[in-house]
Known about the structure:
Shape of chain B: globular
Radius of gyration of chain A: 41 Å
Largest interface: A-B, 7 and 27 residues
Distance between the termini of chain A: 144 Å
Strand content of chain A: under 5%
Structural class of chain B: alpha/beta
Strand content of chain B: 15-25%
Largest sheet of chain B: 8 strands, mixed
Oligomer: heterodimer
Number of helices of chain B: 6
Amino acid sequence: MFLKKLAPATVVLVGSLGLGACATKGFVRDEIAVVSQRIDALEQRVAAGDTASRQALAEAQAATGQIQGNSQRLEQLNARVDQIEQRMREAPRRRPRN
Amino acid sequence: MIAVLAAVSLAAQSAGSGPVKAPAIPTDVIAPMPSEATTRVAEWVASSGDNRSAPYIIIDKTAAALFLFDRKGKAVGAVPVLIGAMPGDEATPGIGSKTLAEIGPAERTTPAGRYLARFGVAAGRQRVLWVDYATSVAIHTIPPGNAAEKRRERLLSPDVEDNRITFGCINVPRAFYGRSIAPLFRRKGGYVYILPDTKPLEAVFPRLLVQPFLAATAR
């Protein structure tokens, strides 16, 4: 008796669940499409950022090379200045004819 | 001008009466009187402005005397000086790079001429008033060392001939150097006119030739 009463309710429940499941798929597809778009955009941005960072790295490496070159030149000039200073110190000053 | 220079000579013996602060001349040094040549050059420099508003010194080698003037041509003081041992108005080429030992007796001249003098450092970290750096001629006090030369005694003696003792430099009394020359020449230097021993005055200072005409035109 109890089962006889429960059967229609079960049918209604299963039917509603089935219909609800169909609606959920569409919703999920829509949501996935949105997410996919966002992921694509993000991937593009990451790719662009990667290119920019590679360029920045190359520029930084070039700048480092330039700095090293400048440092070497500075050291050479420093040595020359030291030599000139030493020569000036050692150069005899003129003696007046008393 | 003669009166001015004579006044300087008298003022030199009474310390503190000069136009510049503390132009004191040591009392043990007799201030020399200006010669005719000194007076001529002093008049020319003052009237023509040849000193370009700088202090100047006239050195009369025949009188072994130095006459100091301020930038306006006002006589400040006069003192006897020691000069090059040999009479002569030229300097041997290349003498500036020789050591004292390498300078021969005939080369010990004080060259005549007009020089722009400035204070500068010389060997031994001494500061001197360079008259002609190329020939190593400077004005300074009596250098320490050879006591046998009796430079101080020579400076004090009234005899002019014994003032010829240096290798070419001009030695002045210490007090006069420190109190009169140094304050005037310290900042921008000045001019030094060294009168000749043997050459005509006009040969050393050619502008003296035109000075009478310029003076006449000015009147």
